[in-house]
Amino acid sequence: MKISVKLKGLYISAILFLIFGICVTPASPAWADDHSSPPYLLLGSSNYPPYEYLEYGKPTGLVTDLVAEIEKESHLELGYQLMKWSQAQELVLSGKGIGHPNMATTPERQLKYDFAIKMVNVEFTLFVNKNATWAKSIADFSNKSVGVTKSSLPDQVIKHDYPEIQRVFFNNDLDGLGKLISGEIDAFATGRLPGLYVLNKHGVESIVPIVENLAEMGLGIALLKGNAELLKQFNASIERLKKSGRLDEIKQKWLSQYSLKSKSFWSSWTVQLIGGAVVMIVLVLVLIARARRSKRNS
Q1: Which residue has the higher pLDDT, 246 or 23?
Q2: d(CA 152, CA 156)
Q3: Which of 71, 131, 204, 258 is deepest in the core (most CB within 10 A)?
Q4: What is the pTM of this model?
Q5: 109 in Cβ contact with 201 (< 8 Å)
């Protein structure tokens, strides 16, 4: 079976991503037997743009900026590391970290964590092939295969609320996108904005999110139970960031370029269309000017 050039590009990108991640991510985080490490270590996802992700081995994103601001406001010494999301959860639950900077609240998680004031609202949905006219709602995916990241919120929601949907695990959204384009799965589930980020970054026009949300929740800092005093300090810092307007500034910086219901307006085809229109207008004006000059000269 022939593979399209775009699909080949996606798989190459995924391979390079994995190789690059191995090269730049430490095999064991800095907290291991390191007494100089920060006393409060937050572990997040290395692949959840635009909220938090690694760029050239360095944490970046909306949540990354918020953690930096909270550290300034609270005067706490915070550690912040990004890795595979399932690994981050395992390490925190084993006592290798204090909590997560970017977690949605679920009844199951509330048994293990205490949650700070929510900082960002996130929509989770399914991404499908544009030609899948049958896919109009979550109910249409009964007995269909849907890709999810293991231990992610979409994974938990589908497992508990939609057991008739067949879950297929993938490493990250780019991996899920490749599986969807190749026909291995019928859809992949992720945050609406992270999914749109991947589509825009790789110029994919054939995949779209459905309108209905799988879930809609607030994301915030989650601390292991038993850290009530620390939670109060985090909440006080977040409240100050809200009152100062700094929280909204950071959200605007990272989220303003995307639409929650569709791809970014400034997608590649839109830019090309506008550019082509501008060129046509210029050509018409040039022809009109030449015609007028020719008429005067005659």
Answers
A1: 246
A2: 6
A3: 204
A4: 0.68
A5: no
Question: How far apart are the C-alpha atoms of 172 and 147, rounded to whole Å?
Answer: 10
> N- to C-terminal Cα distance for the chain?
64
Nearest 5°: CA angle at 15, between 14 and 19? 120
Residue 50, preceding peptide bond in cis (omega within 30° of 0): yes
**DSSP of the chain:** ----HHHHHHHHHHHHHHHHHHHHS-SS-TTTT-TTS-SEEEEEESEETTTEEEETTEEESHHHHHHHHHHHHHT--EEEEEE-HHHHHHHHHTTSSSEEEEEE--HHHHTTEEE----EEEEEEEEEETT-TT-SSGGGGTT-EEEE-TTSHHHHHHHHH-TTSEEEE-SSHHHHHHHHHHTS-SEEEEEHHHHHHHHHHTT--SEEE-SS-SEEEEEEEEEETT-HHHHHHHHHHHHHHHHHTHHHHHHHHHHTT--SSSS-TT-HHHHHHHHHHHHHHHHHHHHHHHHHHHHHH-
Domains and CATH numbers, the chain: 5-103+225-255 (3.40.190.10), 122-215 (3.40.190.10)
pLDDT score of 283: 76
User: Could you count the other beta carbons within 10 Å of the beta carbon of residue 47?
Assistant: 21
Contact by Cβ (8 Å): 153, 90: no
pLDDT in tens, 1-30: 444 545 555 555 554 444 444 333 333 333
- Give yes or no for a contact between 60 and 54, defined as CB atoms under 8 angstroms apart: yes
Give the mean model confidence (pLDDT) for residues 104-124: 93
Average pLDDT, the chain: 83
Give residue 288's pLDDT. Answer: 79
